[in-house]
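does this look right to u?? inosinic acid version
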Amino acid sequence: MSIYKFKKEDGEKILVYDEEKIKVLIDEATLKKKVKELGKKLTIDYEDKNPVLVSILRGSFIFVADICRELKIPVTFDFMAVSSYGNSRVSSGIVRITKDLECSIEGKEVVIIEDIVDSGRTLNYLIKNLRARNPKSIEVCALLDKNVPRKMKNSVKYKGFDIPNKFVVGYGLDFAERYRNLPFIGYIENE
Ligand code: IMP
Ligand code: MG
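got this back:
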């Protein structure tokens, strides 16, 4: 039967699916609270600015859907998809746009909505690429920031959580396209 099953191990809730064990890192209620908090900050900072939310697909689709409903200001949306070459664990640093924005961002106040910053290469590339289109401003709102050593400066102004250097899934994030629909952030224990 193809269904997510939960079990308790040492008092902890664990999702077991197809040999993979997923432990909860950030539960649903904690995510909700943080998204509300970030939404409040953005609402204050972007009052009268009509920002465009640039959501980076696919990982940020749930985050953007939730945070936009916490914004009490007019916003517009655009979407971009990128993929990095190389194997999935060590990013090659070469980022390719697989879906570009539909609209011009010239003169606009842009907020990039990202799921997670790992090496920071994707974000660096995106900022550089979008800056060349002459927006009025660019800021980044990322749900998760992985604790990894980085040479480049951290450009995330609106951050949800600092997390340990683990491979996480859920709330939009996948492992081989699985688990995006989990309502919490978990990590694969036996990865
Ligand atoms: P970076 O370029 O190394 O910062 O990688 C960022 C991108 O890799 C994110 O936008 C995600 O799509 C993906 N990624 C990085 N870490 C994870 C993870 O732990 N789980 C799922 N996807 C991840
Ligand atoms: Mg992503």
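Residues 56, 59, 114-115 surround magnesium ion (ligand 2) (CB under 6 Å). idk if thats expected tbh
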